[in-house]
Amino acid sequence: MKRIYIENSWNESWKYCYQYDLLEIYGEVKKDLGYAYAYELRKQHTLSLIKRVTKKGDRILDVAGAQGNFTLLLTELGYNVTWNDIRTDLADYVEMKKDVGNISYKPGNAFDIKFDELFDVVLATEIIEHVAHPDDFLVKLSNLVKPGGHIVISTPLGSYFKNKLPKFSKFNNASVFESMQFGPNADNHIFLLHLDEIPPLAKKAGLEVAAVEYYTNPLTFGHLKLSFLLKMLPQKAVFGIEAFTQKLPKFIGKRIHNNFAALFKKPAGGALNWAMLILLFL
Questions:
Q1: The domain containing residue 205 runs over which residues?
Q2: What global pTM score does this model have?
Q3: Does the residue 6 lie in any domain?
């Protein structure tokens, strides 16, 4: 990924994204180390899940990819990546940072765009918490994936002990939240999903839950006034503590970790099922 530097001639959306790039990829902002550590963990877990089920050359769609850091990382790993975001002007910003490979740019509403073919993987990081109907959102993502393909999402974890937002499954009519959806910041989060909500959401979308990994404890996120420790501790120690909390029993882990990534598989479909039935009777 190329190193770029802010210019006065940039539009406001580019300048806004650049502030996040300073944290996410350039490591030049020290005042918000919690965000930087949290992003690094999100990156590690998300890419690990994708690598688990793919091979080089597979087609990946990065939905609402913003400044394109996941798009660029996946391109550098040898995937054929399609970048998408509703903000059309960000496509040139992403292209400016590209170092190797080719990226297909499809700005606009991903659910209205006509793609040439379905994808091996659809990626949606930190998006589902901004929508009023996460169940319908997952259904729409599923429609973009080929049979046998996968969906990877990352999102804040609802069971984190500091979460005060409502649980999606407790609402009979989530349409009351439609007017506030699609906001860009944490202040615009609507629902934070709980682990027990993932299987029913997957079932409605015709998906199977292949893996769920939670991560980012209060230290690595800088919560509980622990951010000062991030300036004092070496990176190895911070990630060592994260590794320790990952091994705690689940009933503790899901309360003290702030984020999770989930891997869903779209079943291969009826044709394969019929083939297996025929083989059984041969």
A1: 12-281
A2: 0.90
A3: no
